[in-house]
Fold:
Amino acid sequence: MKYPNFTKEHKSLMAKYLSKEVFEELKDLKTPNGFTLERAIKSGVDNPDSGIGVYAGDIESYTVFGALLDPIIEEYHGFLKSDIHKSNLNPDDLNAPNLDLKNEYIVSTRIRVGRNLADFPLGPAISKEQRDEVEKIVSSALNSLEGSLEGRYFPLLGMSEEDRLSLVQDHFLFKAGDRFLESAGLNRNWPNGRGIYHNNEKTFLVWINEEDELRIISMQKGGDIKEVFSRLAQAIKELEKMMKFAFSKHLGYITSCPTNLGTAMRASVHIALPKLAKDMEKFKAITDKYHLQIRGVHGEHSQSEGGIYDISNKRRLGVTEVQCVQDMYDGVKALIEYEKALCD
Ligand code: ADP
Ligand code: DAR
Structure:
């Protein structure tokens, strides 16, 4: 492996921290699953517009390639090698009375976590056989759920393109063909081993083998953030009775992308802020103050439509799940108050 030919366009944290010295230290190392530095950084080398530019192939990647990943995690999350991650999924600790009882602003609420099975590699290093085994284990566990979580698993293999596009358009299913995931080896054998589970009300969903082996999702129309969080917490508790997730005391829940480590949680609302949208400087000042991220209505790398924005927590590691949701809630409360003030 040769040192990558970085250009001035390569602005990722990987390009920033992969010095020649770190490269020489790591270039010949392999994890127990045979994952190499070359595979870890391929997405960031192929896609100069990457923000992070590196994916882990297994939990061991975070120690074997620590000379590169530790400074990236420290800069992105403000989280030191010596720090310990704490988890709290108790909805009773969330202070979140409904912000929008008249449904004037919040179109929908969605809270998701990423999870990976403890006894398997992560997506970038997993084999086809292993990924198919993950699909079998997780889908059979999901199909055994009862009560409000009861539903059905739909494999992508054999799904009509019409049904797939309809699920994507309804914001229920992941899009295919992300170039960052492609370079990271996360789209290998597509669509084998991928699919979606949803309960009968389509308020509880699980993606299998997209960027992580599970994306556990609770979502519904409107702004009852606490109800969405409570459903997610209940679902995670049920699933943890049936499978063991990759976790470390230092990094929390282990994910393929370092940005999702810790809680692996993104709590978002789709919210209409037509007045504030005309003052993006003020908009961004508020989202920065409350550690929030702005995305478009079709998720990452998409644009807003009709003045509706996807607003979510940015912090995932070194904060608890309750704090992630509280970040989002408190920020959305401030955004709505400012939007109302602009209408007065
Ligand atoms: P993730 O949240 O899993 O990291 P994305 O940001 O790409 O992934 O979003 C995945 C899908 O979830 C997209 O179709 C997006 O429109 C949808 N989505 C995200 N937040 C919400 C929300 N609050 N309400 C409805 N759909 C949402
Ligand atoms: N393409 C990666 C994405 C980083 C965060 N988003 C994730 N994990 N979906 C990058 O380095 O920009």
